[in-house]
Each structure stands twice: as structure tokens, then as C-alpha cells.
Amino acid sequence: MSSFSCPATLDLLDEWLKQPSQLWLTWFESLPAPFGMSLTSAGLYYWHQSNLF
């Protein structure tokens, strides 16, 4: 969950705070987000499957 919420928080803060244009910051925001979304989705799927039985 933190691999999704950390980049999402950085993206949210980027909307209000003026940051210098740095390439590493944009990569840091966008790289772990899809990985975190897939892990969160898989976790929710398996959690739902365990509650069915």
C-alpha cells in the first residue's frame, strides 16, 4: 500500500508546491505507482477470496 500512497502523495503535493524541474523527481513519482496498484489489487482480490469461504 505504501508503494502506491507515497508517489500519490508526492503527485498531490506537486500540484500545490512549486518545484524545480528535476527528472529524478518525476521518475520517483511515477515508477512505483503501477507496481503499488497491482500489489494492492492482488491483495484485495485474495482478501475477497478468503472471505468467501
What does this structure look like?
With 53 residues, this protein is mainly alpha-helical. The chain has three helices and no strands. It has helices at residues 2-16, 23-30, 32-52. Helix 1 packs across helix 3 (32-52). The longest helix has 21 residues, at 32-52. The model has no long low-confidence stretch (mean pLDDT 77).
Name the helix and strand elements from N-terminus to C-terminus, one letter apiece.
HHH
Q: What's the pLDDT, averaged over the residues?
A: 77
Largest sheet at a glance?
none
Give unreliable regions as ranges: none
The Cα radius of gyration reads 15 Å
Count of individual helical segments: 3
Subunit organisation of the chains: single chain
Q: Which percent band covers the strand fraction? A: under 5%
Total number of beta strands: 0
Class based on secondary structure composition and strand pairing: mainly alpha
User: Percent of residues in helical segments?
Assistant: over 70%
Summarize this entry quickly.
With 53 residues, this protein is mainly alpha-helical. The chain has helices at 2-16, 23-30, 32-52. The model has no long low-confidence stretch (mean pLDDT 77).
Helix/strand layout:
Blueprint: H1 2-16, H2 23-30, H3 32-52
Descriptive keywords:
about 85% helix, elongated, about 55 residues, single chain, mainly alpha
